[in-house]
Design goal:
The complex is a heterodimer of chains A (182) and B (357).
Chain A (H helix, E strand, L loop, with lengths): L2 H15 L4 H7 L4 H8 L18 H15 L1 H5 L8 H22 E4 L9 E3 L21 E3 L6 E5 L22
Antiparallel strand pairs in A: 1-4, 2-3
Chain B lengths: L4 E7 L3 E8 L13 E2 L2 E6 L2 E5 L2 E2 L1 E3 L22 E2 L1 H9 L4 E3 L1 H5 L24 H19 L9 E6 L5 H13 L5 E5 H12 L3 H4 L5 E7 L4 E11 L2 E9 L7 H18 L6 H18 L8 E6 L11 E6 H12 L5 H6 L4
Parallel strand pairs in B: 1-10, 10-11
Antiparallel strand pairs in B: 1-2, 2-3, 2-6, 4-5, 7-8, 7-9, 12-13, 13-14, 15-16
Chain lengths: 182, 357
């Protein structure tokens, strides 16, 4: 379709049907208001199809917990730092500080419990055959046994209590940059 | 509506709190009161409301670039544009020009017009200021709103409310406190002096108090808060054959408190670091201040035997480990700073000879 056809086509579409045809929309690079809202899952103002609508993606929760741990204990600063030149002493001093704050922060939002509440090194029953719940190691027979020596208690999130993310916030920004005014 | 609760509000310089007790149905029956603290919802981080027994007496007046829009919403007000409590104190440590702190100390300062917009005292040009009375009103209002949100069946305005004031508050300061409370929508208000409230609490916990004190005893109530200290003398007298308590002397309202002790400890550590060539900037000094408080509490715990506690200041920016500064707070430092700096033991001759400030 050239421009003259497109212009007349749009004119007649609106005059007789009150809206543009799908073909015209495609040519102009627009999307309908109704479909934009349905795909974003939130009441977001419709923009041109190129801008992604801020949706509640599954990775947002992961980004949120990283952001919280950075905010409360500077975990990301620690993980991303090159530690090869520092002594154990210096790393240890920083880690002690970080450890308390990070643990307090995580515990506030997620209640962590062991999968098997037993003493490591003693016999424990496997609560389930589900490989996601219990991992067997060592001389594992053909049929999964009922239990064995507990080597790691596992971790389970018993309660997750994260604050709701504000709708307009960019979840990919884990920590804002900091600028000091002297 | 009959008053179901008595509410006690401690409007402190650094922290405020609200506690309550049920009025017994049978007024003749005076048993131990079941006094509970009300967990106060407040913003801990933008968009995150948390309950806490204490409400820090800090107010932050944000600009456009401080918080994302709508992130200061409370359960009872989605449009709130300022914040009171933990987040205010936290953000105020980063940007002091917008933080209103120690409004209560200003309420007792007779050298200024306490109803004039003075605070934040260090506000830069273009930042709107409020008066100490207005700041106090907002703290009191937050407490009332917290009550109405948690105890909706028994509205705040229908209960008996006690608000504490320092014994050293003059008549003007007391009247301004009442004004702030009324502006915050309070009714049925009674002012109560803090040392007396502390003493009533002691009595409440010791049913045998009449056996512990004798006629003619003098009781010293020492109230060391975050930023202020008050000393009050209460005499045990007799009235109609029964022991009774009279406030006989009130010290001057001292603008020193626990925070100053911690700052003195931080300065001791900072000086030792400076002697070794390590200089701290103002943010690191703040972190050191907070860590010294935690270290001091560990050293002074009942039963603690450690002679020193490590105090670590993490590096700024992304160089967390690289910039880490290690220091130690010694038990000797703590004892010396507190004993010599704040609570020196002097003979009464020396005390009487000391000039009055």
């Amino acid at each position: 379709m050239n421009r003259v056809f497109l212009a007349f086509g749009c004119f007649f579409n609106i005059l007789f049907r009150g809206q543009l045809s799908d073909a015209a929309l495609g040519m102009l690079g627009l999307s309908r208001r109704g479909t934009a809202a349905a795909t974003s899952g939130k009441a977001a103002a419709p923009g041109p199809a190129a801008t992604p609508a801020p949706a509640g993606k599954p990775s947002d929760g992961a980004l949120q917990i990283l952001s919280i741990m950075q905010r409360d204990s500077r975990l990301l600063d620690f993980l991303m730092e090159d530690l090869t030149t520092y002594s154990d002493d210096q790393i240890g001093a920083a880690v002690r500080e970080l450890h308390d704050q990070c643990r307090d922060s995580v515990s506030r939002y997620i209640t962590l419990q062991p999968v098997i509440d037993g003493v490591e090194g003693t016999f424990a029953q496997a609560p389930s055959k589900d490989p996601g719940v219990v991992k067997f190691v060592g001389n594992v027979p053909a049929k999964p046994p009922s239990g064995g020596t507990l080597r790691h208690k596992g971790w389970r999130a018993a309660k997750v209590d994260l604050p709701a993310l504000p709708a307009k916030q960019d979840a990919t920004i884990l920590a804002p940059a900091e600028i000091e005014i002297e | 509506m009959p008053r179901k609760y008595v509410i006690g509000i401690d409007l402190g310089t650094t922290n405020s709190a609200l506690s309550y007790a049920e009025v017994p149905a049978d007024a003749g029956e005076l048993g131990p009161a079941n006094v509970q603290a009300l967990p106060i919802p407040q913003l801990a981080n933008p968009g995150e409301v948390r309950d806490d027994d204490l409400l820090p007496s800090f107010l932050y007046l944000p600009g456009a670039s401080d918080f994302p829009g709508g992130s200061l919403a409370l359960p009872w007000d989605a449009e709130r544009a300022f914040t009171v409590g933990q987040l205010a104190r936290q953000r105020g440590a980063e940007n002091a020009g917008r933080l209103v702190a120690s409004a209560k100390s200003w309420l007792s300062h007779s050298g200024v017009d306490r109803t004039a917009p003075l605070l934040p005292f260090q506000a830069p040009e273009g930042v709107a200021r409020i008066s100490p009375v207005e700041a106090s009103r907002r703290y009191l209002e937050h407490l009332r709103e917290a009550w109405d949100s948690k105890m909706a069946d028994t509205p705040f305005t229908a209960q008996q409310v006690l608000v504490t004031v320092p014994a050293s508050f003059d008549a003007v300061a007391r009247e301004l406190t009442l004004d702030a409370a009324r502006l915050a929508g309070y009714q049925n208000i009674t002012l109560l002096e803090e040392p007396q409230a502390a003493f009533y609490a002691w009595i409440e916990r010791h049913a045998d108090w009449r056996d512990r004190v004798r006629l003619g005893d003098l009781i010293l109530v020492v109230d060391i808060g975050g930023g202020t200290t008050d000393f009050t003398l209460i005499a045990v007298t007799e009235r109609a054959g029964e022991l009774s308590l009279d406030r006989v002397a009130v010290g001057e309202h001292i603008l020193l408190g626990g925070d100053n002790i911690d700052l003195a400890l931080a300065n001791t550590v900072a000086q030792r670091l400076a002697e070794k060539g390590t200089r701290l900037d103002s943010r690191q000094l703040q972190a050191l201040w907070n860590n010294c408080r935690i270290a001091k509490e560990k050293l002074l715990e009942p039963g603690a035997t450690a002679k020193e506690q490590p105090v670590t200041i993490l590096g700024r920016g992304s160089g967390l480990v690289g910039g880490t500064i290690k220091a130690k707070l010694h038990r000797d430092d703590v004892d010396r700073v507190i004993a010599e700096g704040f609570l020196p033991a002097v003979s009464s001759a020396e005390a009487n000879a000391a000039p009055a400030f």
